């Protein structure tokens, strides 16, 4: 869960999110070095009074500042493509859960447990307990196992939605008439929060997602739903 004045990303709870954080730091370092180089060049240009005709017409320098950005883009593109393929990879999921977006709540269907279906609504402020998070708590959490690949089948019944949990590195659009899928493996138990990340109408801000991750042995006894 993010906290006020947090500068970095949320702690990773899946291998894909760990890769995303590493890639973020990699690109941020490249951007910082480029920014420092550009600022140094601007400062030197504004403060020096010396001119050199060799600088105004230098083929070698023009070649360098053309090739160097291309090399930097390649170093950024290859890790990005690797993570892109990792997010789309499906590795024999152990469980399949279907999520359906509505205006403005979510419906979850456990297809491996006899088609168990329930709705997940945001809790109004009057029903919150001490310590609950306003606009993020729901009446029924989606319970998921850790250390096992889980496939989420995501769709919508009315308008565009987006099923998003940042700490898991998940963001999949819910499109009416289309069934999207994403596979993830959680690495540690806990309660993790997300929200619909697609503007879907007047109450777009009021359809949170709460995932409760529990050990696989407990989950195999049967889904447990908590308020």
What percent of residues are in strands? 25-35%
Helix content: 25-40%
Order of helices and strands: HHHEEEEEEEEEEH
Q: Rough shape? A: elongated
What's the CATH H-level homologous superfamily of the largest domain? Cupredoxins -  blue copper proteins
Rg calc: 24 Å
Q: Which segments are poorly predicted (pLDDT under 50) over 5 or more consecutive residues?
A: none
Mean of pLDDT? 87
Domain Cytochrome oxidase subunit II transmembrane region profile: 1-91
Keywords: Copper, Electron transport, Magnesium, Membrane, Metal-binding, Mitochondrion, Mitochondrion inner membrane, Respiratory chain, Translocase, Transmembrane, Transmembrane helix, Transport
Organism: Mandrillus sphinx
Catalytic activity: 4 Fe(II)-[cytochrome c] + O2 + 8 H(+)(in) = 4 Fe(III)-[cytochrome c] + 2 H2O + 4 H(+)(out)
